[in-house]
Amino acid sequence: MLPDEMRELREMTRVMVDLLDNAGYGEVRTPTLEYERAMAGAELGPSAAYRLIDEHGDALVLRSDMTVPIVRVAVTRYETDDLPLRFSYLARAWRRVKPRSGEAREILQLGAELIGSEPIDAAAELLALCGEVLSSAGLADWQIGLGDARILGELLEASGASDADSRALLEAVRDQDLVTVDALAKELGVPQAATIARTRINGDDLEGFDPVGIGINPDSAAWSDLTTVVGALSPEFRTRVVLDLGLAPKIDYYDGIVFEAYDPAIGRALGGGGSYDALMRAFGSSASGFGFALDTELVHAAVAGEERGEGS
CB neighbours (10 Å) of residue 294? Predict the structure, then answer.
């Protein structure tokens, strides 16, 4: 990144960090290198891309994510504090990437975590906050794809599909490999899974949508939570929301409401987030957790793309 771009990125992230701080999300910093043993209980998080051995023979890993370290901080350093807890961060992470995917191994992430709030309230608060952060960066055309990781999971569980078959179908959904989704859904006898994976609903059109028609139980916790969260959003925000019922989380600790942020100037997600109650339980806490992270360099590229009129 060259000097002019660095100046733009620095100013953009300063504005974003200040917004999170003013919203009550205190900034934290965790080590770039973690002892591998200190990450015990974090198997649900993204696996470390880089592992090192220090001079004492201890295994160290490069940070692949900020949510897992922050959850550990919350349950060990704030166990007697009143909930909810609000944290923010601007930090680099290093992840595994698929060959020729075009994804960066090193990411400068900006994000926020809300721990111990009511799940629906947390989802509505952080969705709105993510929108404010994107707007503060200078994006005008951002959109949110909103789903729930439980929708397809509940359908597959009710069908009696094996864990291996369920994982294979969900991975195909995650990779947007709809040919494989169709084949597996047919093989497992759940053709509605293929329909759900393709279903998109504008946020302000949700009221007239009948979930039964595509095989979703309207009384399920997943559908109830999803519609309640949408109802809690402002009318203006709902115009930016697309319910993506096939949205599958790319990180295993997301186990409920999930979302991704997009901009038409960039052909990939700028970031995303969701609920991670299972991760909280892995660290011995019964509190709920919800957070999001944005790739700041992709956000910066999207701002430049909008200025050039791309995607409009």
Answer: 26
- In 3D space, the residue among 137, 104, 72 whose CA is nearest the CA of residue 282 turns out to be 72
- Please, are residues 311 and 268 in contact by the beta-carbon 8 Å criterion? no
Q: Are the beta carbons of 72 and 63 closer than 8 angstroms? A: no
Q: How far apart are CA 148 and CA 227, in angstroms?
A: 10
pLDDT for res 87? 98
What lies within 8 Å, CB to CB, of 307 at 6+ separation is none
- How far is Cα 309 from Cα 291, in angstroms, rounded to an integer? 31
Give the pLDDT confidence of 223-256 residue by residue, as tens digits.
999 999 999 999 999 999 999 998 988 888 899 9
Q: CB of 230 within 8 A of CB of 257?
A: no
Residue 151 burial by Cβ neighbours in a 10 Å radius (0-12, 13-18, 19+): buried
The number of helix segments (H) and strand segments (E) in the chain equals 11, 12
What is the bridge-based pairing of β-strands 59-62 and 85-94?
unpaired
Q: Answer whether 243's CB lies under 8 Å from 227's CB.
A: no
How far apart are alpha carbons 188 and 162 in whole angstroms?
9
How far is it, in rounded angstroms, from Cα 177 to Cα 198? 11
Tokens of 38: 């200190």
What is the per-residue pLDDT for 39?
67
State pTM to two decimals. 0.92
- The two most distant CA atoms of the chain are separated, in Å, by 63
Beta carbons of 61 and 51 less than 8 angstroms apart: yes
Task: Dump pLDDT digits (tens) for 56-89.
Answer: 999 898 888 899 999 999 999 998 889 999 999 9
Domains and CATH numbers, the chain: 1-135+266-312 (3.30.930.10), 150-248 (no CATH)
